[in-house]
Amino acid sequence: MKLSCEKITVDFVGLRALDQVSLSVKTKEILGLIGPNGSGKTTLLNTIGGQLKPTKGNIFKDNLDITEFTPQHRVKNGLARSFQIVRTFDSLNVFENIKSASLVSNMNYSDKIKFCDEIISYLNLDRIKHVLANTLNYGDRRRVEIARAMATDPDFLLLDEPAAGMNDDESEILLTMLREIPNKFNLGILIIDHDMSLIMKLCDRLHVLDSGKTIAEGLVDQVKTHPDVVKAYLGEGFKNENA
Ligand SMILES: Nc1ncnc2c1ncn2[C@@H]1O[C@H](COP(=O)(O)OP(=O)(O)O)[C@@H](O)[C@H]1O
Ligand SMILES: [Mg+2]
Fold first, then answer.
1. Which domains are present in the chain?
2. Ligand 1 proximal residues by C-beta, below 6 Å
3. Ligand 1 atom nearest 192 alpha carbon
4. Burial of 176 (0-12, 13-18, 19+ CB in 10 A)
5. Is the pTM of this model over 0.70?
6. Strand, coil or helix: what is 117?
7. Ligand 1 atom at minimal distance to the Cα of residue 46
């Protein structure tokens, strides 16, 4: 399966946030979307997730044009996303949070419960399964949010800075988990993260935005030495982190 954006342009008042951006990600692949702060990464994820309608351009899942689909309709069609800001149901426990997300999947009820338990154990959430979401620490909440997205049984998982706010150890553990998800759960991942060492270890390919435009795309080793990428990241420690 393939998820693709074709020539996505997004205009806000007085600002072109995205300018003809095209990318695609396939099943079992991890594509990293990177770029300096304000380069349009979250805006692109919002157009793919349906939270934002592009000014121009189209989103396809295989040959299906989903540009006009609501976010809910996209989830039904195999697209799930996590947000840069955590969105769990505070008054539900971890299991209930994940189970409520699984209701949209096409599985029968007992398979849903089994699948939720599989995700819970995969993401190391067993020990906090019955804990209320609003009492969790930040790292745990982020993993619950990823679990909620996975519980919809998606073909593509869209992750916006899943390691934001985690310490180095937590990020490293998350990285190890994410790395195996595409094969284990037969899906593709599109991930945004500003942590360059994490993204370079995790991704098969990278897509780089700067001021709403694609400046480079390709295999990690090709992209990280691309002059425009190095330039875009000057002052953000890009070279140092990967020296
Ligand atoms: N709803 C909005 N209205 C107006 N401008 C926005 C809106 N959302 C984002 N922007 C602007 O669009 C640009 C890209 O933002 P964003 O996609 O959040 O960047 P990134 O995720 O790469 O940091 C920024 O200049 C930002 O200020
Ligand atoms: Mg962002």
1. 2-78+155-241 (3.40.50.300), 88-153 (no CATH)
2. 12, 15, 17, 35, 37-43
3. 21
4. exposed
5. yes
6. helix
7. 17
